[in-house]
Structures are given as C-alpha cells and as structure tokens.
Amino acid sequence: MTPTPEHPTLLTRLRGPATFLALLAAALLLLPQLLEPFRLNLLAQYLCYAIVALGIALAWGRGGMLTLGHGVYFGLGAYAMAMHLTLAATAADPLTNGQLPQFMTWSGLTELPWFWKPFTHPATAILAALLVPAAVATLLGWSVFRQRVRGAYFALLNQALAAAFVILLIGQQHLTGGSNGLTNFPVFAGQSLYTPTAQTTLYTLTVLVLAATYLLFRHITHSRYGKLLIAIRDGEDRVRYLGYNPTWAKTLAYALSATAAGAGGALFVPVMGIISPSLIGVIPSIMMVLAVAIGGRYSLAGAAAGAVIMNAAQTTFSETFAGGWTYLQGALFVIVIALAPHGLAGLTRTATTALRHRRTTPAPPQETATAGSTP
Question: Can you give the residue ranges of every domain in the chain?
Fold first, then answer.
C-alpha cells in the first residue's frame, strides 16, 4: 500500500516521538554540561514561559480564545509559591525569629494573616499554584462563555482582569509586598536554592514539567475533544446547532490553560528569585501572547519554541541594545506576522512540505531529437 497522509509509514510515525526524545535528552543531559550556571538559570526562566505558552496555544490556537490576561494565572501560581518561600525564609532568618515577614512588620501587622498560614507547608503551595488558577478560570470562563462572550470582547475582559489584579496586589502592600513584590527565597524544603546543584535541579524539574505538559496537551489536541475545540474555533454557532454545548468545552480548555500558567509561575519564582506585579500585568500578558504568535499558535511545539526564542532574543538584544530592544521586538513581531502569519512553526511546515513534494515529484522526461527536427 502506498503511504498517504491518512496511512503514514512507520518511519513517519516514529519521527515525532524520536525528535521529542532527542530534544528531551539534550535538554536534560547535554545543556547542563555546556551552559554555565547563569545561562542555565536563564534557560530555566525561558522554559517557565514556554509552559505558559503551551496553555495559550491550547486556548487560543485550538479553542479560538484570545487570552490577553494570562499574567493573572501566572501570577496566582507564582504568588502561591512565593508565599511559602517567604515563610520558609522567615523561619530561617534569625532577625525575624520566625515571626512575620519583614514587609508585614514594616506595615504594622502583628499577626500572620489567616490565608497565609496554610502556606507554611510546601504541598499547600503546590496545590494552590495549580488549583487556584484553574478555579478562577473555570468561574470566569463559565460566566462569560454561557453569555456567548467571545472574540475581542473576551480578550478585553482578560486584559481588564490583569489590570485589576495588579492594582489589587499593589494596593494591599501589607499582604502582598506591594509594588516590590516578594523576594529573597534562600531555602525550599530545607534545602538552599543558591547552590549550583539546586539550580540544576530546578532546571531539570522545569524541563520535566514542560515535557509532561506538552504530552498532556498533545494527547488532548489529538482526541475527539481536541477536534471539538477546533470545530468550536471555526464555527461555534454551527457546533451549537449540532447539539453540543460549547460553554463547557471552552471552559475546560481555558481552565487547563490557566493551570499550565500557574505551574509555570510556581516554577518561575524559585528560578528567578522574585515575583512582583510588574511581571504579571497587562504588558507581560500581551508579551506571552506575542511569543505564541511568533512561534505559531496552531502548534504546541511552535508556541513553546516561540516563548524560548522571544525571551532569549530579549536577553541578547537588551544586553547589546539596552535602549532599543523594544523597537527590535516590535520589528520582529511585524516581520513574523507579515511573512509567516502562522508563525515560525507554520513557516517550517510549509518549507518541509515543499521539500518533500520536490523529492517525491518525478523529473519530467527529457525530449529526444527526432529525424528532421531542428537542432
């Protein structure tokens, strides 16, 4: 039987898993040996944003939900982990005698707020970093999708949510650290976070979480539910007329996307060592979407690669052109959107298809001269 797109060869079917395993092996075994600790820590930060990008690709690329407020869910996961790390640092600090974080003491508090107390346990912080963003996204999604809010209106609603969240964090300085955020996290689970071994462990954990999230979302996108999401994206009213309820389908995708953002935020805090409102507001939320657009919102791998490429470019260009990075960033976005509307992943797919077609197309037969023909 001749191989077709519907019946690919065994080599074609194994190409994707082999590439995934090769990249995973390189990330886990090769890069920690090649990169110095500072660069490895930077790469771990980029991979945290790549986890967020996978969630955006699921919600936006598959479900058609333009999420311009994912900084909220990233921030919820980050602050959940930062609260635990702050309490752990306070307990290990002889200056505080294990009583209150310094910013609370400066704000006049004499007792630890009630909602901070459960975060003395790391398990609580991990669960909160995943469940709180999922719960908020479920509540918001169900409320707006049942009213058939979509498109630009949904995007603006997300953006307003991000702005309100930042205002709340800054206004409650005695509870959240205000505009300075939470920082100085020396220990986690009794282990120092400042050693090279700890940084390598955090990098490895980030890689594994990214790989697990990719495999989960890839399974979802190739399932019947994933096909339903595409149908809703391309024609929600038609899906509704066929008897399906798009509300819960979109809400589930939005909640899974928020959970991925929360996981990325929870990993970002011990890797970066700080979380503040400036990292999770409207502009960072838009930057997350731009990274997915550059990589390709219809491709999970492209979205993750776009997040890594964009953040790496920001670091590289800002080191060289400190004052002109924003202009280069805008030019990069315009060039990619103009030349590759489906992102770098779409451009790569087009080039690969053209190359494969060129290889499989037989060459035209050469004309032979006949008697009496003009040379």
Answer: 35-280
